Automatic annotation (TrEMBL):
Keywords: Membrane, Transmembrane, Transmembrane helix. It comes from Steroidobacter agaridevorans. InterPro entries: DUF819. The lineage of its organism: Bacteria, Pseudomonadati, Pseudomonadota, Gammaproteobacteria, Steroidobacterales. The chain crosses the membrane at residues 36-56, 68-88, 94-116, 214-232, 238-258, 270-290, 296-318, 325-346, 352-374. It holds the Pfam family DUF819. The keyword GTP-binding does not apply. The keyword Nucleotidyltransferase does not apply. This is Membrane protein.
Length: 388
């Protein structure tokens, strides 16, 4: 049994790297159902519940320090890969489809909470706010919102499972809809109005980073995270705009600024960010238990109902504004699936849509934390009296 901090610190990166390595090496089908990050969380949670380490004051202090340091560093690295000018260049029609997809997700989350708030756990509004963050952005946004609103570790497994299962089903559906595009476009009127996709150059890659690049970005991200936390202590706070909120916001802005400088052309931020995300999830899981899994079936049902409402509302908006199926599917998956799956879907539709899918996924990453915090404010006002 681990009772001191150094064996615990050695175990966290080891656990964080196991499942991404297995996926890359063997490409097992199980990872298409539950992605490596979910397996990492469940695996480390099982180790924690099994008593592999004891929550001594020393280990608890290390967990708090790692979480507060890794989160802003991670968001900074992810923002460095975002090009706001390129995103805006995709044109108003594409951004309109993206906005409709996001609006339908947020409305669906709100409706589901109103319908199920009497049977959801006390933290139900926090769980749905975290889900809205990852379904408009990504896993990093979910972690950021979780920390800001104080979602307990025991409630997180239900959110991750609902996210993974609903996402997997939606991906399978979207990859099967290509043949229905002509009929859908006739129904919405997109075939009569015509649609031209913006011609964008494919997002260029600088190739895999070298060791020096990884170390450089890691050091820079930690410095930015520490600086953001220090500045956040001098900012005014409120019920929702906490010190953690300021830290997240300042690190995000720093990343977007660096993205417009020559420094952003140095390879490595995406690779380093992916590693930090896996490590952060492992650290969060190491503090958890299985108590929250009792609500998993109900919350997964809420996730699927949210998904169905999103699909229905997006289809109606497509008919109103004459959107075509390809842009609707890509805009939805860019938010729910992120940059890992949206470009793959786009490639099956039309090669010209691949860079658009990447840029829309990046836009979701930028907005996801803000949308999650906005939904936390909305849902908390709708929560039953006494909900924590």
């Amino acid at each position: 049994m681990i009772q001191t901090v150094w064996p615990y610190l050695a175990l966290m990166p080891l656990a964080a790297g196991v499942f991404p390595s297995l996926e890359k090496r063997f490409q097992w089908r199980v990872f298409s159902v539950l992605p490596p990050i979910v397996w990492t969380y469940l695996f480390v949670t099982a180790l924690a519940v099994g008593g592999l380490w004891t929550a001594t004051p020393e280990i608890q202090g290390a967990q708090r320090t790692l979480t507060s340091l890794l989160l802003p560093a991670l968001l900074f690295l992810l923002m460095v890969t975002c090009d706001l000018r390129a995103i805006l260049a995709v044109g108003p029609r594409v951004l309109g489809v993206f906005a409709c997809a996001m609006l339908s997700i947020l409305l669906a989350v709100t409706l589901v909470f109103v319908l199920f708030r009497s049977v959801l756990p006390v933290e139900g509004w926090k769980m749905l706010a975290a889900l809205s963050a990852t379904w408009t952005g990504g896993s990093a946004n979910l972690v950021a919102v979780k920390q800001v609103i104080g979602l307990s570790e025991s409630a997180l497994p239900s959110v991750l499972l609902a996210d993974a299962l609903c996402y997997s089903v939606w991906v399978l559906v979207l990859f099967s809809t290509g043949a229905f595009a002509p009929a859908f476009n006739r129904w919405t009127g997109a075939d009569r109005g015509g649609h031209e996709y913006p011609r964008l150059a494919a997002v260029s890659s600088t190739g895999p980073p070298r060791l020096g690049h990884i170390v450089l970005w890691l050091g820079l991200a930690i410095i930015v995270g520490l600086g953001a936390a220090r500045l956040a202590r001098s900012m005014p706070t409120s019920a929702m705009l906490t010190q953690t909120s300021w830290t997240v916001l300042l690190a995000t802005v720093a990343g977007l600024v660096i993205a417009r400088t020559p420094l952003a052309r140095i390879p490595g931020p995406a690779w380093t960010g992916s590693a930090l995300l896996a490590l952060l999830v492992a650290v969060l899981a190491s503090q958890s238990n299985f108590h929250g899994l009792a609500s998993a079936p109900l919350f997964i049902l809420c996730g699927f109902i949210t998904m169905l409402l999103h699909i229905g509302m997006l289809a109606l908006l497509a008919r109103v504004f004459r959107f075509d199926l390809y842009l609707c599917g890509i805009s939805s998956l860019a938010q729910i699936g992120g940059v890992a799956s949206a470009p793959v879907l786009a490639a099956t539709y039309s090669p010209v849509l691949v860079p658009i899918a990447v840029l829309l996924a990046m836009l979701g990453l930028i907005l996801g934390t803000g949308m999650g915090l906005f939904m936390a404010s909305v849902l908390s006002s709708l929560a039953p009296a006494g909900a924590g």
